[in-house]
């Protein structure tokens, strides 16, 4: 016997009715918080770099070489200002004896600021001239200006001082400042 076959009704597609469609649901807008992992990593890297920069600048400030260079720069600036004052005072008043006294004191103070106080303050005559020669890098410095620096400051004001030689001493002193600071910056330490 055969079994009756049941047939299921076939649905025929109904005509498309657009009014029966549901509204479009948009996804939630992307929020700014919490940021994506890449932004967190970038933020951590930025904070690490800022911390490293802060640490590096603090370490540089504590570095004795940096401190010494700052001190030398300040010494050079002050020495140049004082030398200009002495030279202007000489040009204005034409008092060679007073000028050589000021230059002698200036050179002594400069040597004390570069060398150790005990080393520079107590030297006289030949040792003083040798120290100036080593500061200037010019061995003839001591020979040329020997009388001006060792005898003239202690002579009476009536004694005549060679103004041309005094002008050469100003030039040599300016060169001494430049030469000595270059030596100090290049790592040659006198202290």
How would you characterize the overall build of this protein?
By secondary structure, the chain is mainly alpha-helical. It has a domain at 67-185. Helices cover 65% and strands 0% of the residues. The chain has helices spanning 37-62, 64-93, 96-114, 117-121, 125-136, 141-144, 146-150, 163-185. Helix 2 packs antiparallel against helix 3 (96-114), helix 2 (64-93) packs antiparallel against helix 8 and helix 3 (96-114) packs parallel to helix 8 (163-185). The longest helix is centred in the middle third of the chain and has 30 residues, at 64-93. The radius of gyration is 43 Å and the shape is rod-shaped. The chain starts with 36 loop residues before the first helix and ends in a 6-residue tail after the last helix.
- Strand portion: under 5%
By DSSP, the count of extended strands is 0
Reading the helices and strands in chain order gives: HHHHHHHH
What gyration radius follows from the Cα positions, in whole Å? 43 Å
Helix content: 55-70%
Unreliable runs: none
The shape is rod-shaped
**Which structural class do the helices and strands define?**
mainly alpha
Count the DSSP helices: 8
Largest sheet: none
- Averaging pLDDT over every residue, what do you get? 80
Distance between the terminal alpha carbons, to the nearest Å? 125 Å
